[in-house]
Amino acid sequence: MAARCGIVSIIIGLLFLYACVTEKALDKPVYEYEETIKLVAFVNSATDLIEKDGEECFPEFRIKDSKWQHDDMYIFVWGLDGMRYVYPPDPEGEGENMLDLKDIDGKPIGKMIVRAVSGEKEEGWVHCEWPKPGEETPTWKSTYLKRAKAPSGKVYLVGSGLYNMKCERLFIVNAVDNAIKLLKDKGLAAIEEMRSSASEFIFLDSYVFIKDMKGDEILNPAFPDLEGQNLYDLQDSNGKYFIREELELLQTQDECWMEYMWPKPGETEPSRKMVYVKKIEIDGRVLIVGAGYFP
Predict the structure, then answer these.
(1) Does domain 34-163 fall into CATH 3.40.50.1980?
(2) What is the CA radius of gyration of the chain?
(3) pLDDT by residue (tens digit) across 126-154?
(4) 62 in Cβ contact with 88 (< 8 Å)
(5) H, E, C per residue of 51-100
(6) What are the tens digits of pLDDT across the range 57-69?
(7) Mean pLDDT across 47-61
(8) For the chain, what are the domain ranges?
(9) Which residues contact 112 (CB under 8 A, 6 or more apart)?
(10) CA–CA separation, 236 vs 241, rounded Å?
């Protein structure tokens, strides 16, 4: 009997340990694409090196055709005040404060980069339009950032990015959550900010949109002609009443994913689109905030 109780105790202990590990794993970002996973590992390795060796490792990041600088990839290092310490494409630009840096659309990417790893956040993403090294025409670049503390006690942000990355589901969820936070902070006045191409809410082929529970479109930066219209009976190219289905789901739950056919911004032919929507109450009004991507 005692042996049986011992075995049961061991099993319960193992199940508890598995639950804890599983719960901890679920707290970590989940990425779908190999290029994203490699980029995150690249920045994490650089972060680990700074936390181990501090500023002494900075020269390693500037070596061309090395682990840290190859093809279009490189590691850059800033302070949380925006001061740039490592910038391999142009070392002469080191020592400059980049807090006021903006992209071609006027996105305040200097402030966005610092904000991505400030406060309780130790890591984050920034999407902007930026030229590849040696080119002048900008293209979409997604940058992963992580905070690092050197042995000296100095805190840095470490980053690297890829051009024309595939959009991750996590990017969409983050955009919706950030839009909801802004709406809670500023109320409906935040909608004008979200409409601007200089906001963080328009990126890659994605954008944040807002409607109410009746199906009235409130914000749609990519298709502004839809704003003010009721889309309850709108069908996609396959005849799917996707707005109606979405609203019916949100009667009993606060968030959901939907799949339907929809044109990419600037196009007329529909493509398969995955959309994440979330229900919130702002100023006494129930709204649906969403964003999507084209897998």
Answers:
(1) no
(2) 23
(3) 999 999 878 889 999 999 999 999 999 99
(4) yes
(5) HHHHHHHHHHHCCCCCCCEECCEECEEEECCCEEEECCCCHHHCCCECCC
(6) 999 999 999 999 9
(7) 98
(8) 34-163, 169-293
(9) 126, 128, 200
(10) 7
pLDDT for the residue numbered 14: 41
Integer CA distances (angstroms), 54 to 64, 198, 245, in order? 20, 35, 54
User: Which two structure tokens, joined as six digits, stand for 104?
Assistant: 């071609």
Half-sphere exposure in the Cβ direction for 195 (13 Å, CA):
11
Instruction: Give residue 116's pLDDT.
Output: 96
The residues, any chain, with a CB within 8 Å of residue 10's CB and separated by 6 or more, are none
Element (H, E) at 45: helix 34-53
Please count the residues of the chain.
295
pLDDT at 247: 96
Q: How far is CA 237 from the centre of its chain?
A: 29
The reported pLDDT for the residue numbered 111 is 97
How far apart are the C-alpha atoms of 170 and 32, rounded to whole Å?
A: 9
Q: Which amino acid is at 208?
A: V
Cβ burial, residue 153 (10 Å; 0-12/13-18/19+): exposed
Asked if residue 168 lies in contact with residue 36, where contact means CB atoms within 8 angstroms, the answer is: yes
One DSSP character per residue, 232-280 reads TT---TT---HHHHHHHHTTT-SEEEEEEEEEPTT--SEEEEEEEEEEE
Task: For residue 26, give the H/E element and its range.
Answer: helix 2-26
Q: Tell me if domain 34-163 and domain 169-293 are identical in fold.
A: yes
Give the CATH number of domain 169-293: 3.30.450.20
Q: Which residue has the tokens 């396959």?
A: 238
